[in-house]
Design a protein that fits this description.
With about 400 residues, the chain is α+β, with helices and mostly antiparallel strands. The protein has helices at about 10-35, 40-50, 55-65, 70-80, 85-100, 105-115, 235-250, 260, 265-290, 305-330, 340-360, 365, 375-380, 390-405; strands spanning about 115-120, 120, 125-130, 145-150, 155-165, 170-175, 185-190, 200-205, 215-225, 295, 295-300. It has three domains: about 10-125, Orthogonal Bundle (Butyryl-Coa Dehydrogenase, subunit A, domain 1); about 125-255, Butyryl-CoA Dehydrogenase, subunit A, domain 2 (Beta Barrel), CATH 2.40.110; about 260-405, Butyryl-CoA Dehydrogenase, subunit A, domain 3 (Up-down Bundle), CATH 1.20.140. The protein has 14 helices and eleven strands. Strands 4-5-9-8 form a four-stranded antiparallel sheet, with helices on one face. Strands 3-6-7 form a three-stranded mixed sheet. The two termini are about 30 Å apart. Bound molecules: flavin-adenine dinucleotide.
Length: about 400
């Protein structure tokens, strides 16, 4: 087990500086344009693929970094550049992790390369879990997957919503109900290969922030996929369902939604994205406060402004520490006895919202315009308290964990 450290090693520093350079030179200058266009920034993704940032290799290297700091460091730098573009770059990684975590070696080898494509023909992937009536309450999911034994095929029907890259993805990973009696324990994940008939994009959402990232409904109408598209395989699923049924029988009640607890390990990554946006806004505000003069002196000479900056920096550093702690715990298999993953996401996302609002205030009228990036950063930051579990759900998970209650 790697010791917890707050110091990046030389190799990590090199990667961080390389990512920072890409974020500063390629992502940030493109941010305003793609925010206005509200379209997937394909040329930027392609650029990221060319230099190796948009690739499974890069993602896996950071993901398996034994210190746990690889992913949070990478997320912070890319999202420092711009949240919408960065989500377009890392969105595929979220789907790929679903396959890495649950897929067989053959599934990993077959599907992940098709999620990314290559630098001359980049592709993206989507992870589709949320539904119109199943957001925070994952257990009320309705999309069904039914096994057609004669053909060794699964047939999926339902509507997914809010899917990042939904409909434009080459590969979709879809979570569906295979046993409705078991709540979230009766869910399974499926690969929907490219150009599968029956999968279509529904509404594409016009959003408040992260507008360069494509978010849409995904309609599944009698989508047939081979048995080999069930992540982990049928044998493993049958064994898992049998265990869940046995537990449900013993417990004498329907198994409740335990999915919320399983996100502990992935939530710090979202916290790191929030730290990136918060740090970006703080830096703009600090620079502005030092140079903008009113009443014959820089506005930072007013305690009312300087104290805001002091609070902003303190919360950003505190958020990063929580994120790094939880990331280190996740990679080292430490039990999240106080829901430390949720804590990090809760604090970092609330910090990003607060800090970006303070940055707008410090820039005055300029902060309220699209001439300066803090306006966009403030809009972008609102997503962090919503996706991957809202702030209320994080508090619920933390509170129930502390109380020793089941998380449902
Ligand atoms: C831009 C964007 C991208 C997304 N990307 C993806 C994606 O790629 N894949 C995917 O599957 N999903 C994705 N999501 C979905 C996201 O995870 C959900 O929006 C989120 O889980 C909240 O669900 P909901 O929107 O249905 O809100 P609801 O669950 O309806 O919640 C509404 C409000 O009620 C509160 N609330 C609900 N239950 C409780 C409770 N028990 N106690 C206290 N308060 C409660 C919530 O905190 C919230 O404030 C994305 C969403 C957005 C906006």
């Amino acid at each position: 087990m790697a010791e917890f450290t707050m110091e990046l090693n030389d190799e990590q520093k090199e990667v961080r500086d390389w990512l920072h350079g890409f974020a500063a030179d390629v992502i940030r200058p493109a941010a305003a344009e793609w925010d206005e266009r509200e379209e997937t920034p394909w040329p930027v993704i392609q650029e990221a693929a060319k230099v190796g940032i948009y690739s499974l290799d890069f993602y896996a290297q950071q993901y398996f970094d034994p210190t746990g700091l690889g992913i949070p460091m990478a997320m912070e730098e890319l999202f420092w550049g711009d949240a919408g573009i960065a989500l377009s770059i890392v969105g595929t990684g979220l789907a790929a992790v679903g396959v890495l975590a649950n897929g067989t070696e053959e599934q990993i080898g077959t599907w992940i390369p098709q999620m990314y494509g290559d630098a001359s023909d980049v592709k993206v992937a989507a992870f589709c879990s949320s539904e119109p009536d199943a957001g925070s309450d994952v257990a009320s999911m309705r999309t069904r997957a039914v096994y057609d034994e004669a053909k060794d095929e699964w047939v999926l029907n339902g509507t997914k919503t809010w899917a990042t890259n939904g409909g434009i993805a080459n590969v979709h990973v879809v979570v569906a109900v295979v046993d409705a009696e078991l709540g979230s324990k009766g869910h399974a994940s499926f690969i929907i290969p490219p150009n599968t008939p029956g999968l279509s994009q529904g509404q594409k959402f016009k959003k408040h922030g992260i507008r360069a990232s494509h978010t849409a409904e995904v309609i599944l109408d009698n989508v047939r996929v081979p048995g080999s598209c069930l992540l982990g395989g049928k044998e493993k699923l049958d064994a898992r369902l049998a265990r869940a049924r046995e537990k449900a029988k013993k417990g004498g009640e329907r198994v409740k939604n335990a999915a919320m607890a399983t996100f502990e390990a992935s939530r710090p990554a979202v916290g790191a994205m929030a730290v990136g946006t918060a740090r970006a806004a703080y830096e703009v505000a600090l620079d502005y406060a030092r140079t903008r003069e009113q009443f014959g002196r820089p506005i930072i000479d007013n305690q009312g402004v300087a104290f805001q900056l002091a609070d902003m920096r303190t919360s950003i550093d505190a958020a990063r520490l929580l994120v790094w702690r939880a990331s280190w715990m996740a990679i080292n298999g430490k039990p999240f006895t106080a829901a430390e993953g949720s804590m990090s996401k809760l604090f970092a996302s609330e910090t990003a919202k607060k800090v970006t609002a303070q940055a707008v205030q410090i820039l005055g009228g300029n902060g309220y315009t699209r001439e300066y990036p803090v306006e966009r950063m403030h809009r972008d930051s609102a997503i962090y308290t919503i996706f991957e579990g809202t702030s209320e759900i994080q508090r619920l998970v933390i509170a129930r964990t502390l109380a020793g209650m089941p998380i449902r």
